[in-house]
Amino acid sequence: IHGAALKQVPTAEYNPFETVKTNIIGGQNVIDAALQTDVKKVIALSTDKAAAPVNLYGATKLTSDKLFIAANNYKGKHDIKFSVVRYGNVMGSRGSVIPFFIKQKEKGVLPITDDRMTRFWITLEQGVKFVVDCLETMRGGEVFVPKIPSTRIVDVAKSIAPDAEISLIGARPGEKLHEFLISRD
Fold it and tell me: In 3D, which of 20, 132, 26, 30 has the Cα closest to residue 85?
């Protein structure tokens, strides 16, 4: 199971080539190592940001996804299968907005990009179970995507800190601002 990645949008935008080296070249290194060591199954963990990417992080993960799927075409006589698991935000993980909102709750103000922004959510346990289930059932070449709930980020903020002020801060570099503009037309 390949889960290493530079995965935060601002970090990727600030360090583009480090993100390429980690997310793309690192993925290819995993493919090559798996082919050389008789591994039977490889699943690469991806992100919902790889679907129609608008930032470097999503683009590098989409490229990585394509490398893992294409590895099924050039594996030769190796008895190996490559697949991808793609899901959203793991609740409470490092980089999740939940610990950030809990910390900001003390200040009484929660910054959010836009009040129409949404996130797909999965618990760590659900994510692990999904990956293990996919590992057991994979045939090679699949991009597995679980059906998981989406929540407006402002609702998450209000549930964590109902008395806090919501401060709209606008999009950071690389965030999906174009979706907001499309929805306004």
Answer: 132
